[in-house]
Write a structure and sequence with these properties.
ligase, tRNA binding, 20 helices, nine-stranded mixed β-sheet, Alanine--tRNA ligase, 6 domains, alanine-tRNA ligase activity
């Protein structure tokens, strides 16, 4: 039997010997490729090579990899097919070899034949090859490939392939070329050429060889100067062929998962059927096993269940798995997390407990509504053969049912779902939700364009009031121009004072607490004293603005040093909040930061601050921008952008930013980190203070440390000092606890000795009258040595008083004292009840040691 490990090693070993560099699987989250939700083929990480773009693999001429891939969501989506057959998967592995301007068709075909036939010992009589030849296409037939295959296969096994099946294109433009597929006939001994590419389950594609020799442009197709090879093998499929089984699910990748599922639910064993009485349960096996693998891989690469993008695809997969486990297979809640952990082990993936908890949280979250949602669905299905889009949306919005899960339930009940209406309902709900969040005030009939360029230029301008609205005691005013900064890009909105004048006389003052952009209108929000008028004088709070500037430039410096310090992590900004004297920064990171790392980052930040570096802002064209400038890959930028540059002697820190900043870093004064926590899986949050707030925090910490105070609640102080104070507090608590424990142990020991003495004396008083007596007490707080001493003491008392008896104890359980009128064969009977024993003679006692299960026993018997 071929194992998955053997096949991986055979493939990579074969191509390593032939000069290929073995490339590790990239993440299932594509790097710098917004066109894909997930990595869906081995080619993805080499796309830049094929496009001729410089990248980390630019020097590689021959490559080989076993790439982890997910096809669930987006253009390539196998999610709906999993379970229905024995070969679809949402997660799979793709083996492949590549040539970037090195070898071409002949070598690619030779390698494929040699590996399959001579290394894996697959019968060549069962193999068929295709080549591109489509009369309906204007692309020339690939007769060269046909000729090359004729060296190994009879012409009856070389099949023409259409443009759809045998011509590969990256997109509407770019590299492209013919491909040649190798197909395997599971049955053999027949002419199966007519079954190639007909979705016959017994004639399946094994290997696809893509010959990239053309470049398609808007004007036509030209030959590439440097052609390339891109190949791909379905790992699970080839493994099934090597093991002579008709299903991808009957290999060591899935069978252990099936065994685990079966034992969890006391189910019938997996029969690998797609029809008949076992089909439903078998489909459940396949769905649950497949989805557990996909969940494990997603978690490994930092994807967590959420309501957006990849996270929502994972949430859908989790919920399908939960429904399958509980509804189809009747398993109890909690099985999914354990199954994901087992799947991870099979795949060689290590998942921390904190990561796995995301599965249990998702299972618990959906489990609370699953049963109620199923009840509602059954009522809806009983009404007719179509589930309305509105009802499907209720299931989605109220009970957490993804649309595809509702479609599965509908299909099982011979019903359909009105998907168009569902999408309309969802979009309507989103619009209402957005408006509810963004409309605290009534709005003008059409958006008012406010000239806000003054927010960067000056404080104190005259403006004209164009619109006002009231809500819950607050007034929101919109002007023709403003110097106030509205909340944007993580920076809070300005506060300040707006004075209204009528004929030169002050008639009212608006104390602005916040500035917000609402539906395209810049609202200045606050409490009004007096009344408004058309003429107004706008002045923002410059002291508060200066503190905000310090925090905003501080965020840029923090982000820079996180990237430069945590070199083992891919640090990306996940969110920020910039306030007066305080900043919050969320970033991607798989672990907590150590105290020394925080100390190092703080030291570097404050060194830069002290160097009094210049901070410049330049407005530049986004197109052609220096790639070293930090930007948010998920954000769309206008034609012209603001590039904020910190001119440090060692480097230039550059970020695209629309916020306000200091002119020199020395204005920041200090930056101190006060907390570093996790906000979600693989996302950390740093909160820091700047300027006066940071200085006050340092002073609080210094005072506490000098006073040696570690008691009571800690004020807001820097995290490094906080951890030192907490260490002192913990050390004191530990010392106190150890002292208390020692005292308690001594008290318990004395108490146990007293209890033993009193109970023994009581037994002595009536021992001769009672044929058998037993008592027990907790001996967990005394040592084995103490127990044995006490048993020996009891035996001495028995002997002195002429009592025939046995003292018997389980050391790690409790102590039992047994009295009997006749000892006789008691020792032998006790020995017969023990798993292992050893007997020795001490004075007039038989001393027997033994074990029962995992418990160690000690027995002393008198009267030889």
């Amino acid at each position: 039997m071929w194992t998955s490990k053997q096949l991986r090693e055979a493939f990579t070993g074969y191509f390593r010997k032939r000069g290929h560099e073995i490339i590790e699987s990239s993440s299932v989250v594509p790097l710098d490729d917004d066109t894909l939700l997930f990595t869906n083929s081995g080619m993805v990480q080499f796309k830049s090579n094929l496009l001729g773009v410089k990248n980390k693999f630019s020097g590689v001429r021959r490559a080989c990899s076993v790439q982890r891939c997910i096809r669930a969501g987006g253009k390539h989506n196998d999610l709906d097919d999993v379970g229905k057959d024995t070969y679809h998967h949402t997660f799979f592995e793709m083996m492949g070899n590549w040539s970037f301007g090195d070898y071409f068709k002949k070598e690619a075909i030779d390698y494929a034949w040699d590996f399959l036939v001579n290394i894996l010992k697959i019968s060549g009589d069962r193999l068929y090859a295709t080549y591109f030849h489509d009369e309906a296409s204007d692309v020339d037939p690939d007769t060269e490939t046909k000729r090359l295959w004729s060296r190994y296969l009879p012409l009856s096994h070389i099949v023409k392939g259409s443009f759809r099946n045998n011509f590969w294109e990256m997109g509407d433009t770019g590299p492209c070329g013919p491909c040649s597929e190798i197909h395997f006939d599971r049955i053999g001994g027949r002419d199966a050429s007519g079954l190639v590419n007909t979705d016959d389950p017994d004639v399946l594609e094994v290997w696809n060889l893509v010959f990239m020799q053309y470049n398609r442009t808007d004007s036509g197709m030209d030959k590439l100067r440097v052609p390339s090879i891109d190949t791909g093998i379905g790992f699970e499929r080839l493994l099934s062929i090597l093991n002579n089984v008709r299903s991808n699910y009957l290999t060591d990748l899935f069978v252990p998962l099936f065994e685990y599922i079966r034992n969890e639910g006391d189910l019938d064993e997996y029969k690998d059927t797609i029809s008949g009485p076992s089909a439903g349960v078998d489909a459940g096996y396949r769905i649950l096993a497949d989805h557990s693998r996909t969940i494990a891989v997603c978690l490994h690469y930092g994807v967590v269940p959420s309501n957006e993008g990849r996270g929502y695809v994972l949430r859908r997969i989790c919920r399908r798995a939960v429904r399958c486990a509980q509804e189809t297979l009747g398993l109890k809640a909690g099985v999914l997390e354990r199954l994901v952990e087992k799947a991870a082990g099979i795949l060689g993936i290590s998942l921390e407990e904190s990561v796995l908890r995301a599965v249990s949280r998702e299972e618990a979250l959906f489990g609370r509504t699953l049963n109620r949602g199923i009840v509602l669905f059954k009522k809806l299905a009983a009404k007719g053969s179509t589930i309305s889009g509105r009802d499907a949306f209720v299931l989605y919005d109220t009970y957490g049912f993804p649309l595809d899960l509702t479609k599965i339930l509908a299909a099982e009940n011979n019903a359909t779902v009105d998907e168009e209406e569902f999408h309309r309902e969802r979009e309507r709900s989103r619009m209402l939700s957005r408006e509810a969040r963004r409309r605290p005030f009534s709005l003008p009939e059409s958006s008012i364009t406010t000239d806000d360029r003054y927010k960067y230029l000056e404080n104190g301008i005259d403006a004209e009031l164009l619109f006002q609205s009231e809500r819950e005691g607050e007034v929101g005013c919109v002007f023709d121009k403003t110097c106030f900064y509205y909340e944007c890009g993580g920076q809070v909105g300005d506060s300040g004072v707006i004075t209204f004048y009528e004929d030169g006389v002050k008639v009212g003052v608006l104390a602005v607490a916040d500035t917000q952009m609402i539906s395209g209108n810049i609202f200045h929000i606050g409490k009004l004293d007096g009344r408004t008028a058309a003429a107004a004088r706008l002045v923002f709070d410059s002291d508060r603005r200066d503190k905000i500037k310090k925090s905003h430039t501080g965020v840029h410096i923090l982000y820079y040093f996180l990237r430069k310090t945590l070199l083992d992590e891919v640090i990306e900004q996940k969110g920020s909040l910039v306030e007066a004297g305080r900043l919050r920064f969320d970033f991607s990171c798989s672990r907590a930061l150590g105290t020394e790392e925080i100390r190092d980052i703080e030291a570097k930040m404050n060194s830069l601050v002290d160097e009094d570096c210049s901070v410049e802002v330049e407005v530049v064209k986004f197109e052609g921008l220096d790639p070293s400038v930090t930007r948010n890959t998920n954000e769309e930028y206008p034609e012209y952008v603001r590039n904020v540059r910190v001119l440090w002697k060692n480097d230039t820190i550059q970020d695209l930013c629309g916020g306000v900043h200091v002119k020199r870093t020395s204005e920041i004064e200090r930056i101190r980190i006060i907390s570093e926590t996790g906000v979600s899986l693989n996302t950390r949050r740093i909160v820091a203070l700047t300027g006066e707030a940071a200085a006050r925090a340092e002073e609080d910490a210094r005072r506490l440390l000098e006073a040696g105070s570690a008691e009571g609640a800690l004020p807001t102080i820097p995290l490094v000092e906080r951890r030192e104070i907490e260490r002192i507090r913990d050390a004191r608590a530990k010392a106190l606890d150890e002292k208390r424990v020692k005292t308690i142990m001594e008290q318990l020991k004395r108490a146990n000795e007293l209890v033993l003495q009193l109970r023994t004396e009581a037994l002595m008083a009536d021992g001769k009258e009672r044929p058998f007596v037993s008592f027990e007490y907790d001996g967990s707080c005394i040592s084995t040595k103490d127990v044995r001493k006490q048993v020996r003491k009891v035996m001495d008392i028995f002997e002195k008083n002429g009592i025939n008896g046995i003292a018997y104890c389980f050391v790690n359980g409790g102590v039992h004292l047994v009295l009997s009128q006749e000892c006789g064969d008691v020792l032998e009977r006790i020995r017969g009840c023990l798993d292992s024993t050893s007997v020795r003679t001490v004075d007039r006692f038989y001393i027997c040691y033994g074990t029962v299960g995992t418990k160690e026993a000690f027995i002393a018997a008198v009267i030889k």
